[in-house]
């Protein structure tokens, strides 16, 4: 089933809430130009895009993703990725392990697209994705943010988010419990706060 597309219906409510509870995040919201978080409507695309972005900078990930789209014929298509070769991966700039993950996801793309993700609990989403080779908590969080448009995700394993929270607090490193405590007031819209932290950190909007 298609996943949500476009701006989340809760986005303006989230911004209003964050301005009210956290002046620091409110300041960032007021300084950052739109667009908002955008859902692509294709969970397989989001998974593959997030895999490409694992453990590399946003700039590098964007360049590699564009080369992968060129390899697919200009737009995302799982079919060519199923048959991607080691030489293709080298030319695109994708590691062998990521290539294995991408090919595995592409091979089950139809099944993934048939799942009614909107009816699943957070635990069920994790249970569906975590067994896939090369898919871990960070990638799952990106899927929940950018494809499922879950309003309350805090990816504590995202280095950009951690660095931004440390900058707000004025000290580093912060323990996991301290990061979670700082983000407590953002509930139930931690996703929106995270998106604006990314926007403060990177000039271009993060998109998976």
User: Strand-residue fraction?
Assistant: under 5%
Instruction: Please write the CATH class name of the largest domain.
Output: Mainly Alpha
Sheet with most strands: 2 strands, antiparallel
Rough shape?
Answer: globular
Going by CATH, the homologous superfamily of the largest domain would be Hypothetical protein, domain 2
Rg (CA only): 17 Å
Binned, the helix content reads 55-70%
Find the count of extended strands (DSSP E, 2+ residues).
2
Helix and strand arrangement:
Elements: E1 5-6, H1 11-21, H2 23-31, E2 39-40, H3 43-52, H4 58-71, H5 78-82, H6 86-92, H7 96-107, H8 109-114, H9 122-129, H10 137-146, H11 159-169, H12 176-182, H13 190-201
Salient structural properties:
2 strands, Endonuclease III, domain 1, mainly alpha, Endonuclease Iii, domain 2
